[in-house]
User: What shape does this take?
Amino acid sequence: VTAAGETGRLCVGLISGTSADGIDAALVRIAAAAPRVELIAFESSPYPPHVRDELMALYDPAASNAVARLCSLNVVVGDLFASAALGVCRQAGIAADQVWVIGSHGQTVWHQPATDPLLPLSVPSTLQIGEPAVIAERTGAPVVADFRTADMAAGGQGAPLVPYFDWAVLRDPARTRAVQNIGGIGNVTCLPAGGDLASVRAFDTGPGNMVIDALVTLLTGGAQTYDRDGRLATGGRVDGDLLERLLREPYFETAPPKTTGREEFGMPYARRLMEGYGLAAGSLAPEGGATEAERARVRNLIATATALTARSIADAYRRWLPAIDEAIVSGGGSRNPVLMAMLADLLAPVPVLTLDALGIDGRAKEAMAFALMAHDALMGCPTNVPGATGARRAVPLGKLVPPGRRADPLA
Amino acid sequence: VTAAGETGRLCVGLISGTSADGIDAALVRIAAAAPRVELIAFESSPYPPHVRDELMALYDPAASNAVARLCSLNVVVGDLFASAALGVCRQAGIAADQVWVIGSHGQTVWHQPATDPLLPLSVPSTLQIGEPAVIAERTGAPVVADFRTADMAAGGQGAPLVPYFDWAVLRDPARTRAVQNIGGIGNVTCLPAGGDLASVRAFDTGPGNMVIDALVTLLTGGAQTYDRDGRLATGGRVDGDLLERLLREPYFETAPPKTTGREEFGMPYARRLMEGYGLAAGSLAPEGGATEAERARVRNLIATATALTARSIADAYRRWLPAIDEAIVSGGGSRNPVLMAMLADLLAPVPVLTLDALGIDGRAKEAMAFALMAHDALMGCPTNVPGATGARRAVPLGKLVPPGRRADPLA
Assistant: This one.
């Protein structure tokens, strides 16, 4: 076993999100003492298009030969995850067999935290592929994989899991922190000052960038897919009446734990919002020839959608969190200065920092989290957060695949 | 850890075969010394019909929502496996948390040892369901599951795996043994006298009961599904010309390692055989009114099919095995006295024993094998047999799921 003392153990974390863009790999050094996880290398590898197409095909309820295709895809994706692990080691000049453990989230192909009444025999369940035995074989490292099933077996929703990382790495003995991620969806982890794992709460605050992104995509006819640097929102004015109406959405008043997603705040939501505001798709397309009044209206709507994200976050803190001393923001939304300014206004005098400002690369956070969960699982620690997933109790997550080959099993 | 000394560790093995009839559970005591595995209790639980229907539905290439259904079924089947493990412990009056490890093969829903040229992205792969995290949660025992993937990652066919049990339990320092299972398909494990794991060879010899069963089912119009006690074959005479023709099937001359199945020796094969012999389906049906000549012809055909199994086994030994000192037969075929007599004739003077005569319950063998593989995997032993699967080397098989809860983690 690699000495854990001063230097810590080398671990790799691997994940591909539900959008199935590609695989994030983080090589980290993990120690028992703060800061616990130190990033050594990070690499994001897009899926080859034919693999992504095949993954997307499985979402089609009418896909033929789905079980046979899933069976192959499990190995194909596992092979790509192995390559991602080897790649991030190569980048850092580290031999893969020096890696103490690889934590692989895999690729989610289905996740139903609740029963689907339209399907026979439906039960809460989740399905990740990316065969860890293939990763173990190609890297020679032990692999911990398939983290969500044990939480669900203990009555949880199997998500979110990253709050474990937040608690392990970002908790503070004296300050209560809200760790806010703003991806497509916004989610917060609340870390009470000096609190243990049982004190941690986490839930989705509502839309993150999803509504803004969808509006920008619709209104520019696809010429832009997000509001880069908040440029569109900057020139707009928040429509206060519309904002108050949007905040009446029942999700915001539901008590946590709770999750939301594309079903609620995806493209159909944005389209209704756009049409209700009297705008048509492509209004801001390069060839659209919009009038100045139309352009102003577009900017106002984007500003209002940005305010929706900021307000829903601030409202959620007021409603469901204890008084916080600090908010730490990561995700694409942390790079939108309009959104960040709105959030700072709403939370003042509580300081709003970015995760990057704390020296943690936000892009690598999820992959780092699975490296940490794999490491701590091997140490015998429960790694789910019942206050986030709703599980009956803390349980160890993941299945261990022993290394297929190691030059020296004691190395 | 339960003391392993005199008494051994309590382990449970679970499997459901590809026919998806139901779950076999064996509670065993495993020790380092011979006989290594001692059966304490065995129970076979049929799947509830609606679960079996849903499993079968997944084989339909046109099944809709297959991925969502598989996702749920993984948990539903895991839950039934957990119940089977708890059931066999209850039967023996043993608390589930006294079990040291559960080895769960799971339910195979797809297995393609070779690439399927008709499917995009097809690679050798295998897919077992029956979520082990659910078994660990409900039993409180650690679970080792998903044994076939690591062998395939090491270049093997992922099957057969039971030869590991044969070697561990049935090898002899002085006698070379052929351990012959006669299920639907016949398969043999050759254990050279005093040989190590690398010396073991295993392959499918050809049809076991499959052709006999299919003929009986066809000819009796389903009134009988197998030749109970060899009664039909007893009154028949082997057609030597036909037998020689059948033995020219290329499979028999292919060098091992090799596998065969329903594709080759299933119902279409039996139907061709029946029709080529001038017999019609239902000839021997209760209401068939067959002439005495027809009845004799039916018996001759069944006797010939029985001889095909016996000859293909004996020929395979002569062609591919070293000189054997003993044959040990298990499976349904070991209860067909005509088949056993033919085999004894062909192999004489080599004695032909049954597994049951050695004090090992043949019905429980597969489930016992997965208990043993789980146990030995936790001991750090490779448990695949490269001479059986074609893997590049011996590797540990299975993924370890830690127990979700244990009153005392050191118990």
In short: The CA atoms of residues 182 and 292 of chain B lie 31 Å apart. Chain B touches chain A through 62 residues (CB under 8 Å).
